[in-house]
Amino acid sequence: MALRELSSLEKYLGLKKPNKYSTQGDKKVPVLQNNNGPPLLGLATIACHLAKEAKRPELLGDTAESRAVVQQWLEYRVTKLDSCTKEDIKFILKDLNLYLQDKVYLAGNRFTVADTLMYYGIHPLIVDLAIQEKEQYVNVTRWFDHIQHYPGVRHHLPPVVVLKNRIYTSRHH
Amino acid sequence: MELFVSEGNPHCLKVLAALEVTGVQCSVQYVNHEERVVPFLSRPTLPALLLPTGLHLFSSNAICRYLFEVSGQECSEFCNQWLEWEATDLQPALLQALYMAVLQGKGSEVSTVLQGPLKFLDQSLSKGGMPYLTGEAVSVADVVLWAALYPVLSDSSQALGEHKSVNGWFDRVASIHSCLSAAQKVLQGKGLQGMKSYMQRQPAPQSSQGRNTQPCNCNPIEGEEGERAFSEEELEAAILNWSKGLSTSPLATDRQHPILPQEGKRNILVTSALPYVNNVPHLGNIIGCVLSADVFSRYGRLRGWNLLFVCGTDEYGTATENKAREEGLTPQLICDKYHAVHSSIYKWFQIDFDFFGRTTTEKQTEIAQDIFWRLHKNGFLVEDTVEQLRCEQCQRFLADRFVEGICPHCKYPEARGDQCDKCGRLINAVELREPQCKVCRQTPVIRSSKHLFLDLPKLETQLEQWLEKSTSTGDWTTNAKQITRSWLRDGLKPRCITRDLLWGTPVPHPDFKEKVFYVWFDAPIGYLSITANYTDEWEKWWKNPHQVELYNFMAKDNVPFHSVVFPCSLLGAQDNYTLVSHLVATEYLNYEDTKFSKSRGVGVFGDMAKDTGIPADVWRFYLLYVRPEGQDSAFSWADMALKNNSELLNNLGNFINRAGMFVTKFFEGYVPVMELQQEDKKLLALVGWELQQYIQLMDKVKIRDALKHILNISRHGNQYIQVNEPWKNIKGGDTERQRAGTVTGVSVNIACLLSVMLMPYMPEVSQTIRNQLNAPQSCVSTMLQDNGTFVCSLCAGHRIGTVSPLFQKLEADQIEALKKRFGGQQPEDEPSKEKTPQSTASTQPAAVPAPAAAVEVVTVNGVDPEKAKQLTQAVAEQGDKVRALKAQNAEKTVITAEVAKLLDLKKQLALAEGKSPEPAPQKGKKKK
Description:
The structure holds 2 protein chains of 2 kinds.
Chain A: H1 2-13, E1 20-24, E2 29-33, E3 40-41, H2 43-53, H3 64-81, H4 86-99, H5 113-127, H6 131-136, H7 138-148
Antiparallel strand pairs in A: 1-2, 2-3
Helix pairs in contact in A: 1-2, 3-5, 4-7, 5-7
Chain B: E1 2-5, H1 10-22, E2 27-30, E3 48-50, E4 56-57, H2 60-70, H3 77-103, H4 110-128, H5 140-153, H6 164-174, H7 177-187, H8 196-200, H9 220-225, H10 232-244, E5 267-272, H11 283-302, E6 306-313, H12 318-327, H13 331-348, E7 355-358, H14 362-377, E8 381-391, E9 396-397, E10 403-406, E11 415-416, E12 433-437, E13 445-454, H15 456-473, H16 478-490, E14 495-496, E15 498-499, E16 516-517, H17 519-522, H18 525-534, H19 539-542, E17 548-555, H20 559-573, E18 582-586, E19 589-591, H21 606-609, H22 616-625, E20 633-635, H23 637-667, H24 678-699, H25 703-724, H26 726-729, H27 734-758, H28 763-773, H29 778-783, H30 812-821, H31 831-834, H32 837-841, H33 851-857, H34 865-887, H35 892-915
Parallel strand pairs in B: 1-2, 5-6, 5-17, 6-7, 17-18, 19-20
Antiparallel strand pairs in B: 1-3, 3-4, 8-9, 8-13, 10-11, 10-12, 13-14, 15-16
Helix pairs in contact in B: 1-2, 1-5, 1-7, 3-4, 3-5, 4-6, 10-24, 12-13, 14-18, 14-20, 15-20, 16-20, 23-25, 23-27, 24-25, 24-27, 25-27, 27-28, 34-35
């Protein structure tokens, strides 16, 4: 799974020569075999490496603050998202929904690798949401739909249908 | 910048150490563990750094990294790697270790848990041969890892084994004064015990690190609503209802035709917009009119209203003439053919019309001409000469749909002569830009012709008076009111009611012999004539506004004709007609994320639904669940499967089945004695409340919203069973057995109530449930009376029937196959590509399907490879043909016919690929 993400990311970044990867351990942590040095370990680490390799440092954030935010969401992805339980899902979506209320992208107004990796990671959660639930997390859905349509990002994942109009607007309670 | 930390929190140790090491200026606030500092996180999360931009960082590693970066030390890739490892590998192990050591007193086991990560760290350090993790100098990785490990490594009671390199590194970092001082601040010199209060607030760590991607079947409504509290009086009322028992009143479901208005009853006439005969209705049409009207009619009959539901096919007009020409039949034959198609579709969907008629009848001519003469006599018709488009080649005036061109309002290129499909505005055919004759594609010329007009401005005052009353007393949907208002605001103009056509109701006036009525003058009169074909006493419904309430169901595009044009005809005819009291209009239903399109083969059409193998009731349920009530909505296969599996199967079906099975298995099929306790009473009150909500919403025709309350009830029921565990109690002593009996009895009665509430939505399932429960028919009429009364209709000792599962799971591959089958002929959707600026800028029309690409998508792996191969070839050839025709700008009718052939071939191909039930006869004979 992680390897497919990395290969999608490579495609997005327009890297000509695909890198060689393997995985390590039960959790299948991706490993990048690097010709010029020791191998790199971990999805977020490799993603950042790829962005640098593609000479797209802005994808890691353009200020110290946004760089920290990008790293924070990359970490969130490989920790919270990747090991979430059924009960966590609700919290994750709720928190993210609140966070994204006033943001276009995770790091504010610029698209970054955090958006890509969070999108890949949250995809299985979104796929399982009913229309009604998607509407409940409208900011997440909006962000998700935006990223899945962001040129060149989706690649290995099927598109998820998102309704632009709310159909469950009134609650009768 | 402000850093929020709490004492005894090991993560705070990291950030404080980083702060001390880097010397960054930042105020530090100590807060409680429970303090919610980060506004968007629902769980208290510390540490948190408030950035100058107002944003919060909530990850300790990100904070450390940031502090190092602002002090001029950027994070290297290997730093990144260590921080990621710390978060994904070390932290889960540490959390478990600390949990054991601090809270469980199992310090001896800590070394086992930490063995793996420590070994990894040790090997890395010794292999690197450098004093620190990433080189000769201390980096953020060293500080973070050191701080993370400090609580366990500094505790001398922990025998963590010999990790030489780790120990050396740990001591080196510890010798940095700032690190130790940070540790002192957080742990207060109490070692591990300093973290006790923090650890107590952490969730127990999971021993297994499995990712669980199961959908959260959390119900958003239920999740947020919480417990509904009931007063003692409300509980009393619920018990009173419960013990009332079934009424002995006659069955509300008995219908004696002809149904006629009765004195002292609520007399309700329901119409559904007349579907145009030559189109096979798609799911959007079905939910918009007939299905919505059917649910309401079924509900009304259950409520004991005296209700008549009529509908029929709208058969006159240019579209029928066009279709007849395409198929080489007479218009009448076309109508006969398609009327039968419509009838069978609605029958399959279980639309329970009292009468389903058609507009091409004697009665239609009689009534339409009568209304015409009355309007004429009353001076509401005016004569005018109109400029009209005439095709010289076809020797005819091109009314309505005989001409297409560019919409003068929105520039839509395929606007029809009467209305634009895109912007919905009505068009005068001569206003069209670049008009083309639909038959021969020649450019028509403008000629004048004499026509009759309904003088709407003269009727405007009357209309407004009536509208004022009807919209304020009746249940008009918001969109119906808005559309009507905007029509009146724009000012009414005389509307032409005659057309130069053959296929229509003839205009009886001698000066207009060759003409027929414009369909929109004619079609709504169909409601009257269809009723007249049902009963000779039709005027008791249609000329009886004081006794009859008229409900019109339609999609929003039909509103102006029902709220303005037709009422004006009836008002002007001055014959005491029944005008609409409640105008119920839906928005549009889309298909997945696009529109239904017959020509592109996109979407599910009425006649195909039954071929999917999904029962009609499940279709009804899902369409009603996403009914475009108030807003556009969309049909989605994935969502349909999800709703079927989560709501019907796991919620509703599960509850009803369990309730019945308990009676069968634990009580030999007899409903047990129920002794209600407080908890049961609360449930009765809750269910009763949901029932009342359902009735209030249904009375207001909020069909989709009412459905939610049915599902709420079964959710409450499932919870009730889950909490009370009758399957355990039944094995216990007398008290427990008694409890199991009560819970089972209450549950099976709720199941009975559900069957009644479901009746308008899923008639067959509803009947099946009552058959399984052997429920008395009178329960149907009892529970939906007045405000809704949840009575005990299956009393102790009642014998139920055989219980079996009600719903089947829709599997992902099945849904995927259906989605593909109805996805149209376009190449695979590639949104990423479409959205790139290059392709939007290209001049290629986006909507043109590419048959060649579609052929490539087809993969041949079925039971009949030979046939599939031949068909693939045929599809490819037919695709070429269509493209060639399009390239030559051939006549549209010709192209449409060829496209239809192509679609048919593709359908056959799909069958040959393995969906065909027949064995493959030519399997052995493979051609080389």
